[in-house]
Amino acid sequence: MAATNKSPLLGLSVAWGYGFAVVLIVFILTMLMPDADGPSPWDPTAFRQGLIGMIANFRILDELADLSIVRVADVGEGLLNVDLEAIAVSNRAFGYAPFYIALLGAGLCLFARAVRLRMLARHAGISSEVPGQLSAFFYGRGLNLFFPFGPGELGAMRTLARNGADEGRATVAVFHNRVFEILAIVGFLLWGFVYLGWGGAVEAFVWTAILITGVVSLTRPLGRGGAADRAGFFGNTWSAFGGDTLKRATADLLRAPGFFVGVLVLSLVAFGLEVFAFWSIKQAFSSPMDDYIMMKDLAFVPFTIVVAVAGLARVIPYTFAGFGVVELVMVVMFWVFGEAFLGGTTVALLCALLLNGMTLALFLMALGLSRCPSILETWHDFFERSAARAA
């Protein structure tokens, strides 16, 4: 009988996570993106121009015309009418070399994080003979593609335990993996601010604080908002990231300084590969041969700051795969650095497709190569342990 009472709450939480992601994407596509080409986001002409511009940047107008989704210069059938100028944009030369580099970079960044989990598992006392340690990371990361609120860490822990690891030690290893992820992101973010200098970093820092605070405020339905009474939104942010626990975990890891530095370097390399993969996918959808570079005036350091801020937002997985939240953060941060919403939306969605697509491929590989727990059982177990159940 108790299980029957829990089921509607479980379904409602999943529906809310999906629904909120959709609302955020609709907000980007209707309220932000059309602003670059039209007088008002409510102007249907501006909306169509923005939407067609993004589709053209994705190089798929010809395919959509073949499917009768769009019509070219009033010829054929379709819901949207595109002109020959948009077709010319869509037919720009595609950069296959940077595209393959982006795929390689995305794969290597995820593999480096899986290796980091294996190193932390061994440091926590889990024998290296325990199989599935690399797959545990891919399984957990992939689980977050389908469910909101981030059950992936529990999934990674249960995969380690299913393959013979002590559950307590597996929990420590998985949490320390998150510690190093946050340290690497913050390291890149601080480096970017220092590089820009006081004059260049002030506005970016302010918007970073606003965006991260806004994302953190979404965690209150999960029961994490109580710390806001401690020191306003700073206390809420500290609590949402588990600041006290992160501090204790970092101090514990520093007892082995050589190991700490080695894993931190690996974490920095992993995040650097992610930034490079995102930069490469942006370049792939540019077209130097046609004298077009997407975000031509955006330097690599500001681009890194954008990815780092989005990475911090992704640490708090309010929606599935951070969908909507991460893209919104990226679009706004690109705008802070002077890029139009149309270009920012295109690049943000390209980055999401790249990383989530590679994550999905490695998740499916993990399911085939290792003893992974049931996806639905893991989600139910996560929900039973979650503060969302008491909301």
Which structural category fits the helices and strands?
mainly alpha
Q: Could you tell me the strand content as a percent range?
A: under 5%
The main sheet comes to:
2 strands, parallel
Compressed to H and E, one letter per element, the order equals: HHHEEHHHHHHHHHHHH
Q: What form results from the Cα inertia axes?
A: globular
Give Rg in angstroms: 22 Å
Cα(first) to Cα(last) distance is 20 Å
Quick check: average pLDDT? 86
Number of helices: 15
Number of strands: 2
| Number of domains as seen in the coordinates | 1
Please mark out the parts with pLDDT under 50 across 5 or more consecutive residues, or reply none: 1-5, 221-230
Helix content: over 70%
Strand order of the largest sheet: 1-2
Relevant terms:
2 strands; two-stranded parallel ribbon; 391 residues; mainly alpha
Structure notes:
By secondary structure, the chain is mainly α. The chain has helices at residues 2-32, 44-57, 61-66, 84-90, 96-123, 133-143, 152-162, 167-217, 228-240, 243-253, 257-284, 300-315, 325-336, 341-369, 375-385, and strands at 70-72, 80-82. It has one domain (94-380). The chain contains 15 helices and two strands. The protein is globular, with a radius of gyration of 22 Å. The two termini are 20 Å apart. Residues 1-5 and 221-230 have low confidence and may be disordered.
Please outline the helices and strands.
Elements: H1 2-32, H2 44-57, H3 61-66, E1 70-72, E2 80-82, H4 84-90, H5 96-123, H6 133-143, H7 152-162, H8 167-217, H9 228-240, H10 243-253, H11 257-284, H12 300-315, H13 325-336, H14 341-369, H15 375-385
Parallel strand pairs: 1-2
Helix pairs in contact: 1-13, 2-4, 2-14, 5-6, 5-8, 5-11, 5-14, 6-7, 6-14, 7-8, 8-9, 8-11, 8-12, 8-13, 11-14, 12-13, 13-14
